[in-house]
Write a structure and sequence with these properties.
Length: about 130
Amino acid sequence: MGLDMYLHEKITKPNGQFELRELLTWRKANQIRHWFYTHQNRQEIEEQLAVELTLQDLKDLSTDIEKVLKNHALAPVLLPTQSGFFFGSTEYDDNYYNDLLKTFLAVNIIIGVSHAEQTFVYSERW
């Protein structure tokens, strides 16, 4: 078991129904989870998140990641790790920065091909 995380594009159909198209997955990237958690003003760490995001949310995430990749001293401030039973390591090591780089590259591709009205969904399970 572990923290499995997903980013989906929310596609609304003409009949009002919607479907989710998977764009990105993570495993135990608790710093990314913490970013979504704090930017949604969540209070309880134990709940599993499922939140809608805007394109601007993804741009904000990208900006914070870029700052940390350029200056590692900002990691505990902008993208701190988060402990939890299934959340993995809280070290600021190669795995931490590899998860950030993976996220930065993927999110910037998503940003580049998306439009302002699109919505996204971050979800997780453990």
